[in-house]
Amino acid sequence: MQARVLGVRVDCLDMKAALDRIEQLVDAGGHHLIATVNPEFIMRARRDREFARVLESADLCLADGTGVVWAARRQGCSMTGPVTGTDLIPPLAELCAARGFRLFLLGAAPGVAAELASRLRAEHPQLEVAAHPGSPDPSSDGEAMALIRAHRTQVLLVAFGAPKQELWIDRVKDSLDPAVGIGVGGAFDYLTGRVQRAPAWMRRAGLEWLFRLFHQPWRARRMAVLPVYAFKVLSAGK
């Protein structure tokens, strides 16, 4: 089942269903894009035609955040909770290790992806994982794609931030070997402890945005869209 949240498609999948679908896409071969959609994505897509096009073309649009889950549930979606990039990576790495899927981490500041790769490898010694900081700048595509191809990547996690990561995957995916590309935002920073994440109780209560705002006040301008988003969802009805 799918919902349309202010015009943006959201697939009604919880974590287990999302992992099952990713496994199917890897097995199927071909080039695939998965987006983890939060309210900021949706509001940006309303004014950015290219970003809206990329989201519409994605194989999966997962609900990243309680605000999207809330809006999708108003349309009949039954989801146990959001599927954030940060929460997705650990079980996805476990899946890749179990199935022999080759995982590549691209993005974040120099050293961050490599550190996360080392941590994941320590947890899953059989995991084939490589990393590169990369850049969304087209001038850097050649080096990144050469490394991704050399690794024979099947699952590619891109942490350039939205919308750069989704636009980058869309731009290069047909030039790569068959792979599933997933935009994961700041997940590498959270999983390596560089950025503190909200306590579990705040995440369950849908208050992670408040924790982020307190610890990262520079996010205020970006988060200003949240009340507008909520108002528009309510105004749109079910």
Written account of the structure:
- The protein is α/β, with parallel strands linked by helices and 238 residues long.
- It has two domains: 2-17 and 26-189, Rossmann fold (3-Layer(aba) Sandwich); 197-232, no CATH class.
- 50% of the residues lie in helices and 16% in strands.
- It has 13 helices and eight strands.
- The protein has a six-stranded parallel sheet with strand order 4-3-8-7-5-6, with helices on both faces. Strands 1-2 form a two-stranded antiparallel ribbon.
- The relative contact order is 0.16.
- The model has no long low-confidence stretch (mean pLDDT 92).
Q: Gist?
A:
The chain is α/β, with parallel strands linked by helices and 238 residues long. The chain has 13 helices and eight strands. The mean pLDDT is 92.
Strand content is 15-25%
Order of helices and strands: EEHEHHEHHEHEHEHEHHHHH
**Strands, total number:** 8
Average predicted local confidence, pLDDT? 92
Q: What's the alpha carbon Rg, rounded to whole Å?
A: 17 Å
Number of domains: 2
**Category from helices, strands and their pairing:** alpha/beta
For the largest beta-sheet, the strand count, sense and barrel status come to:
6 strands, parallel
CATH level 3 topology of the largest domain: Rossmann fold
* Uncertain stretches: none
For this entry, give a set of tags.
single chain; about 240 residues; alpha/beta; Rossmann fold; six-stranded parallel β-sheet; two-stranded antiparallel ribbon; about 15% strand; globular
